[in-house]
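Dear support,

I submitted the protein below through the web form. The confirmation email said the job was done, but the results page showed an empty box. After a refresh the structure appeared. I'm attaching both so you can tell me whether what I see now is the final result or a partial one.
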Amino acid sequence: MSDKNLSNKVAVVTGGADGIGEGIARTLRGRGAHVVIADVQEEKGALLAAELGENASFILLDVTDWDSWNNLVSELSSHPGHLDILVNNAGGGGFGNLDQLNVEEWRNIMALNMDSVFLGCKAAAPLLKADGGGSIINISSTNANRAWAMFSGYCAAKAGMTMFSKCVAQHFLETNANVRCNTVHPGPIETPNFKRLTAAEGAEQLLADWQKNNPFTEIGTVEDIGEVVAFLASDEARYVNASEFVAAGGTLL
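What the results page shows now:
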């Protein structure tokens, strides 16, 4: 795959200010794309965009808010004027089984991980179609593929957004729009959020359970995920659609 195979393409990365999103933004920019970092973390996002140079920018975005998405689309329509790649990366969750999660926590998890993907796909679709097509990459999780009671809300949300992504791909096929939609399913990735999660009360047993089930799997890096996303964003992946890409070092074996 060419080092600059995304030249002349515009990519939006939600949750792009740090963690996996930052890794994706850096990788796409390295492949020549104009990267728009969309995040609620204004200072971090703006600093990263400045570091990445003139072909990177920052837009404040609350992925759970429809008006915020409309504002992003409006700004993109003005400059740079088109959109080729949407990476719905923003998400997150926390501990909680059926007994522990309350209704508010459940709804927050759904809003951040499922509503955000629906809003992003719906808002960005006209721009993607207007420029002749593009690629949507939704960042799911191996938790969409395997139940884990202590992450019940997160598992449910990621599984839901994975199936929704297939529905989006089918919709674009049925309407003859040249837009692909795929999901990437990271395993444990070394990020600031992962460090906070593993430092939380009760995390020792969760880590022990994970290591017992996955003795040969190391913790991945944000660059590992960025490389998968860069492929799916490229024209080399033109025949890849409605698919799940697990990047987890064998976690699901």
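Response: this is the final, complete result; the empty box was a page-load delay. Strands lie at 10-14, 34-39, 56-60, 85-88, 134-139, 179-186, 244-247.
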